[in-house]
Amino acid sequence: MTTQRTLSIIKPDAVKNDKIGAITMRFEAAGLRVIAAKMEKLTLKQAQDFYAVHKDRPFFNDLVAFICSGPVMIQVLEGPNAILLNRSLMGATDPKQAAAGTIRADFAESIDKNAVHGSDSIETAKQEIAFFFTEAQCFSRA
Ligand code: CMP
């Protein structure tokens, strides 16, 4: 198994509902270590840049408004097959489609307020981690 890193964002809905601990426990229980973390309220510019890949999608404005609506918990997770593992822990983007027992099935209320973001590929993970953290801010225990 390849050790990988992935970026996780616990979104404003889950932070507001006091689910930082419950969600992080799921990461750790599955073998994903938190190797960097910070809590921030994103600026509009940060959100637009972070989600630039979606800039032509009809939901873009709502997406950036929501991610800026309150503080988020940003984490780098490291562990075996971290990118896919995190995506399976999160469940489908739309919580109505998310498998039982996944983070989105348990903590999300809609496709917009869907509790967590996770990188979707090796390349995206690299870019998203570098967007928020330097290598010196990542404390690998691999
Ligand atoms: P996230 O994994 O953060 O990536 C982009 C976000 O856009 C996604 O989670 C959803 O919260 C949001 N979104 C809203 N509508 C859609 C849609 N139709 N398809 C994909 N993502 C959507």
TrEMBL record:
- Could you tell me which InterPro entries the record lists for this protein? NDK-like_dom (IPR034907), NDK-like_dom_sf (IPR036850), Nucleoside_diP_kinase (IPR001564), Nucleoside_diP_kinase_AS (IPR023005)
Say which domain of life the source belongs to: Bacteria
Any one GO MF annotation of this record: metal ion binding
Taken from the record, one Pfam family name reads NDK
Where do the annotations place ATP binding?
11, 59, 87, 93, 104, 114
Under catalytic activity, the entry for this protein gives: a 2'-deoxyribonucleoside 5'-diphosphate + ATP = a 2'-deoxyribonucleoside 5'-triphosphate + ADP; a ribonucleoside 5'-diphosphate + ATP = a ribonucleoside 5'-triphosphate + ADP
For activity, the cofactor(s) needed are:
Mg(2+)
Q: What is the predominant subcellular site recorded for this chain?
A: cytoplasm
Q: Which UniProt keywords apply?
A: ATP-binding, Cytoplasm, Kinase, Magnesium, Metal-binding, Nucleotide metabolism, Nucleotide-binding, Phosphoprotein, Transferase
Claim: Ion transport is one of the keywords in the record? no
| Location in or out of the cell | Cytoplasm
Tell me its family.
Belongs to the NDK family.
Function as written in the Swiss-Prot or TrEMBL entry: Major role in the synthesis of nucleoside triphosphates other than ATP. The ATP gamma phosphate is transferred to the NDP beta phosphate via a ping-pong mechanism, using a phosphorylated active-site intermediate.
Recorded protein name is Nucleoside diphosphate kinase
Q: Which organism is it from?
A: Candidatus Rickettsiella viridis
Task: Tell me the organism's taxonomic lineage.
Answer: Bacteria, Pseudomonadati, Pseudomonadota, Gammaproteobacteria, Legionellales
Gene behind the chain: ndk
